[in-house]
Amino acid sequence: MQKNNQDRLMRQREAIRCRLKKLNGKQNQIKSKSSAMRESIVKKYEAMRRVLEEDCRISLSLLEMEETAAVRALENLIEANGVLLRDIEVQLNEGMMDSDIQLGDRATMYEERVLELLTATDPGLIKLDEAKSDQLLGLTNNLLLFIRSQIPIAKRLLKSYSSEVVLDPSTAHPKLIISSEGNCATFTDVWQDVPEHEGRFDTTLNVLSIQCWDSGHHYWEVDVSGKIYWELGLTYPSISRKGQKEDCWLGRHAESWCLEYFDGDYNAWHGGTAHPLPISTCFHRIGIFCSFPGGLVTFLGVDSMTPLYSFCAGTFTESLHLALCPGHDLQGTNSKPIRIC
Q1: What is the pLDDT of residues 130-180, one digit of tens each?
Q2: Residue 273 β-bridge partners
Q3: Which one of 77, 191, 262, 300 has the fewest beta carbons within 10 angstroms of its own beta carbon?
Q4: Where does the chain have alpha helices with state H?
């Protein structure tokens, strides 16, 4: 009997060792693939930069060659005018004591030369090829517009994970007005006449999405423009809904992940721990990215695609709802709604 139990334990130990070996191998595989992908992306951007730098060099060289030729031509014309000017000044100095007839002869002698010189050195004859320059500038601008239309690549990739989401009025605090489309939450100082529901928040100004997710990759964008206070994030359905406890607040427990903004300051919250963010930009739109395979929750400032904070949860133990809190109106300074884009 003892031998059988020992054999069972040894088999269990071997199974765990085998699983650990596979997990370590998978970890190394992911690191290796990520490193190779990172290197490939960097090389592609370096290649693009070299192409653009070379094109810029060629374009500037063409402009410089034309500029050099025009400047040299003008220098020759300036020199020709200078030579004749000095010659006339010499004649004037030498003829100060001459009679009017003699001065007239000198003037007649130079009149034809001056006329020819002025005709030959007309500044309007020397100019850059403006049509070519305009064409070059136009092509450069078209290239810029094309590049801008293609980037940021990361934003296009994230948007490919966009998931439809509608707010659930039955979870909304009675002082929140949820739009008929289910995409907007607005604070009102009037307690709404809404049915009592076990899933409704009764003290915190939260509302959850109808949908919940338990696999895959998902991305949402939330419009927070014109507001000085808001909270948004993801939460398990098990979040507390009733009472004054901080357990009902987003990010103050292990059931939710939250980004909070108040009067210029950002904090990322989870497990009751605040992570102050050294960011002074007031973003108008916040992105939330969730990856179930990696247990990742990432917040981004969509205006400039700035990563704000990432939580690595490991493995999510429940499905996730999108959660929003528009906050009190703060004497009219925070009356704007919070809206899912």
Answers
A1: 777 788 888 888 888 887 777 678 788 888 999 899 999 999 999 999 999
A2: 270
A3: 191
A4: 2-94, 100-120, 130-150, 153-159
- Per-residue pLDDT of 258-302, as tens digits, reads 999 999 999 999 999 999 999 988 999 999 999 998 899 999 999
Helix axis angle, 100-120 relative to 2-94, nearest 10°? 160
> Peptide bond before 276: cis, by omega within 30 degrees of 0?
no
Last residue of a domain, one of 150, 176, 191: 150
Strand-strand pairing, 306-312 and 296-301: antiparallel
Q: ∠ CA 253-254-260 to the nearest 5 degrees?
A: 55
Peptide bond just before 278 cis, omega within 30 deg: no
Q: Count the neighbouring beta carbons within 10 Å of the beta carbon of residue 132.
A: 12
Q: Which residue, 217, 48, 41, is CA-closest to 143?
A: 48
- From 109, 127, 150, the end of a domain falls on 150
Phi, psi of 240 (to 5 degrees): -65, 140
Tokens in use for 143?
């290239």
Q: Please indicate, yes or no, whether residues 138 and 167 belong to a single structural domain of this protein.
A: no
Question: What contacts 211, CB < 8 A, 6 or more positions away?
Answer: 163, 164, 165, 166, 321, 322
Q: From residue 26, how far is each of 13, 33, 289 by CA, in Å?
A: 20, 10, 23
Count the domains in the chain. Answer: 2
Q: Which domain range does residue 266 map to?
A: 162-340
User: Residue 197 burial by CB count (10 A; 0-12/13-18/19+): exposed, middle or buried?
Assistant: middle
